[in-house]
Design brief:
Blueprint: H1 6-23, H2 27-42, H3 45-50, H4 56-74, H5 79-88, H6 93-120
Amino acid sequence: MSFKRLPLLILLVVVAASLIGCGKKTDKDKLTDLYKVTIEFMQSPEYKNIFKETDMEKMSKYMDDKQKELLKKAGFETVEEVTAAEQKYKEDKDILEVRKQFDEVSQKITEEIMKDKMGSMPQDQQMPPQTDAPPTDNAPKTDAPKTDAPTK
């Protein structure tokens, strides 16, 4: 090998090493990706449809398999890796922001699913609406002392 090709070979090795290094995702990147792919999944019809499944064992297996798929898609192998990354980046502003988005989407989708489930239940099995109105005084009158009053 001639000395003229040596600088070219060194340059190729450096470029290859930098490309390999750039391809590695940090735990923060993987955690961000996990939140994003999970949000995407939760907003899909596929997610809402699984709650129509009446066989709880089948539903549970599906959710376990989907969790593993989402972990791998984000770059994690186990839930323990996610837990460690969560702990490591619990105060990171970028992670806090994506977690906030996740929480908002999760709450919205859960409310939609519950609303759909309640709408599909027979009317006599539905829960009465919750109100913040004070209780009315329709209770039968008794001589017993009120239970919420402090006793001396």
